[in-house]
Amino acid sequence: MSRLGAGDPGFAARDDEVWAVYSEVARSPHLKNRHAAVLLLMVSIVVVITTPSIAQDFPDDHFFSGADRPAGLKSLEGKAAPPLALDAWIGDETSLEDLRGKVVVVDFWATWCGPCMAAIPKNIELVEKHGKDGLAFIGVHDSRNGWDTADAVVSEKGINYPVARDADGASVKAYNLGFWPTYVVIDRQGVVRAAGLLPDKVGSVVETLLAEPGGGGGGTSGKAEFPIDWYVGGSKRLPGLARTEGRPAPEFKAEEWIGTPLEPDAMEGRVTVLRFVSPISRRVRTEMPAWRSTTERLAPQGVAFVGVCDHLADWKRMRSMFGEAGPPFPIARDLPPEEAGPPLGRLATTYGVRRWPTTVVIDRNGRVRAAGIEDARVAEVVGRLLAEPIETPAGDS
User: Fold this and answer.
1) Cβ neighbourhood burial of 100 (10 Å; 0-12, 13-18, 19+)
2) What burial class does residue 106 get, using C-beta atoms within 10 Å of its C-beta: 0-12 exposed, 13-18 middle, 19+ buried?
3) Where are the domains of the chain?
4) Given this model, what pLDDT does residue 224 score?
5) Fold (topology level) of 228-386
6) Does domain 60-210 have CATH number 1.10.3470.10?
7) Which of 3, 59, 182, 211 could anchor a disulfide with 108, C-beta 3.0 to 4.6 Å?
8) pLDDT score, position 342
9) Do the beta carbons of residue 355 and residue 280 sit within 8 Å?
10) CB 194, CB 57: distance < 8 Å
């Protein structure tokens, strides 16, 4: 049932492949024009941007068939979970959209499937353990056979999660299913993180995702901190951006600046807005006046604004964008990647940035709170964070 998809081998260029292309071009004695090399690199990066794939989050031994698991299942990972098409329910009817903000396990199963039946106690135990922590669980039954006995199985086994029937195999097709049971785990942003897990590995994957920032534990409701439509791309925003939220902001290092260089402690105790930019982006060029206005309005409230320019960009062109007025905020040139790293700069790589412009907001305690936020929502996010207290380290009076 596998089909060619953006995550299949040979279809989507990886960061290391793009870097290899750039390195080869840069060394070529026949190419003297550095801008042509950069242009070729940017064309290659478009492939990465339009087919967003991420490194595998979990080891091969967590999956049926290990490294040889079906490419169709693997291709789901790092992308928004396809909707489930379900036409009959035992238990409370729900949907993946309704469950956004929770970690969701989808178990494709059937009453005629021996391994499926054997795994049910583990499912029940997992829901009992983490149902209050932000976990949701749905059993999706085969549409062809066995549904007539599903009600009895739910009762006899004491299944504590909703069970539904696949609608004419539509969900099986959408998820590239090839065997039962198939476990798919979806994170709080609605992104598939693992597909084709072994039953005894589902729990550890769930606990890993519950521990990620954005809800679930810690007395929260399990919902993402900000509405998904506040982000560029909505539910399809790049997973690398989402994974930075709730974590300490990486150390900011730069050697070249446009405007007054930022002092090392300038972001301490302040809400900070990072704006990843490149002069090749028309949006960066056309939206800079609006960003000047935003900076002038919010900076007096104690907000730090910092630009991060793509390290491969034409630095002179970036500088010339501002004329005598200068930049609306200091702009640092991102450092080149570490040896053998991806082609993007160090900060861009750390934050999961793959396109320009991208805006990241950091709170006064130095944690990333919103990555890839829409321009129209920046002021509202900043306002919320300004209203929060600064945490006092334990032991300080």
Assistant:
1) buried
2) buried
3) 1-52, 60-210, 228-386
4) 53
5) Glutaredoxin (3.40.30)
6) no
7) 182
8) 62
9) no
10) yes
